[in-house]
Design brief:
Length: 401
């Protein structure tokens, strides 16, 4: 664990906020939880959203549901809308937007008190003449380029090597990512710091009475569905989950539907085709985006979490499920082994039959479920956003001192 340096001194921190402009997936949750923790400790945090700077305490409050960003200003909302519009209708904008964003970044730096440290939580920082930290969540785009859209590959290939050179420290979210980063890039090991993600206290066991309103809203029954949480994209390997679930007897799979919870991602044409039969049959449910308030309830209400990802840097939904008292069935991806330990059932990502057998066992074997719940709850207690923030602040102080 990292040591704190001069841990009582308050810091003036700049953070990249572009991951907060869309519905909060993994990186957005990471950034918002860090900001919340920093603000609660009295540090000054300002986000750069690509078009403008904004304090993390917009309108004077830090909300629990957002995890840290507080009530969003009209400029932040507009920036998010512009980003989504550009991504969908003006793909060529990615070629020149970095120059515009750098200009806006520099302008904001000049007008305000210069931050003591700048941290971009989303791989690629802007140029900053001061201590710089980035977080690299994985290198899936190197290992599995076919799982990423072309514009993202181009952006990372053109800018990530520079980001590694520019940064004074590189935070990675697991030992696995540290090893992957060094295998793929010539980065000195002493620049890398492993800081695990945390899990919100909002993820906890819920009784069936406590989930009844949310269950009714989504047409689900507490303890009678498999949850698959995450952005719909190829790396999550939902094809294995769908194929494995489809091998269950029809009466069983309709009683325990596979429920997909997450926003639409990219390269999903084949997934939509694979979903058609289950959606018609009623054995598969697709909820799409759900609110931050509903995610903990939907997680806690599941019979089990199914997470057959081909490649992960951490696997936040796995820890959230364990904290919620829900058994986990996941792939043997190395980061998931690191995070879950012996508290989950693990099968190779391509082992459809193995996933089917595990799903059936989770339905039939209450003793197995109780063992996994107990082990998972104990495992989840080793992860917290407070610890993540403490260790991240220690990284900052190493380069600010």
């Amino acid at each position: 664990m990292l040591q704190n340096h001069n841990s009582d001194a308050q810091l003036n921190i700049a953070m990249g906020g572009r991951a907060l402009l869309t519905p909060l997936t993994g990186i957005g949750q990471y950034a918002s939880h860090l900001a919340r923790e920093f603000v609660q400790r009295g540090h000054q945090v300002r986000f750069f959203y690509g078009t403008h700077w904004s304090t993390s305490r917009e309108k004077g409050a830090v909300t629990s549901s957002a995890g840290g960003a507080g009530a969003r200003s009209w400029r932040t909302v507009a920036a998010g809308s512009a980003k989504r519009f550009a991504r969908r209708f003006v793909p060529g904008i990615y070629r020149f937007m970095p120059h515009v964003e750098q200009y806006r970044f520099d302008s904001g730096i000049r007008r305000q008190r210069v931050p003591q440290v700048y941290h971009d939580p989303n791989f690629i920082p802007f140029r900053f003449r001061g201590p710089t930290v980035i977080t690299a969540h994985d290198v899936s785009w190197v290992r599995y380029p076919e799982y990423h859209p072309a514009h993202r590959l181009a952006l990372l290939r053109a800018n990530f090597p520079r980001a590694l050179e520019q940064s004074d420290r590189i935070i990675v979210v697991s030992d696995f990512v540290r090893d992957e980063l060094q295998a793929c890039f010539p980065v000195p090991r002493d620049k890398i710091r492993v800081v695990h993600n945390g899990v919100s206290t909002r993820f906890r066991p819920h009784s069936s009475d406590a989930t009844s309103d949310v269950m009714a809203r989504y047409g689900l029954v507490h303890g009678h569905y498999f949850a698959a949480v995450g952005t719909l994209e190829p790396r999550k390997n939902l094809h294995t989950a769908l194929a494995a679930h489809a091998r269950l007897p029809v009466s069983v799979r309709c009683k325990f539907p596979l429920t997909l919870i997450g926003v639409e991602g990219w390269l999903t044409d084949s997934l939509h085709l694979a979903l058609e039969h289950g959606l018609r049959e009623g054995s598969v449910r697709r909820l799409g985006y759900v609110s931050d308030d509903d995610i903990p309830v939907l997680t806690a209400g599941a019979l089990a979490m199914v997470y057959p990802s081909v490649y992960e840097g951490f696997g936040l939904p796995v820890v959230e499920a364990m904290a919620s008292g829900v058994p986990v069935l996941c792939s043997t991806a190395r980061a998931l082994q690191e995070v879950a330990g012996d508290a989950a059932i693990m099968r190779d990502a391509a082992d459809v039959e193995g996933f089917t057998e595990a799903m059936q066992a989770l339905i039939d074997d209450s003793a197995l479920r109780e063992r996994l719940i107990s082990a998972g709850s104990a495992r989840a207690r080793s992860f917290s956003w407070q610890r993540t923030a403490d260790e991240t602040l220690a990284v900052y102080r190493q380069i600010v001192a």
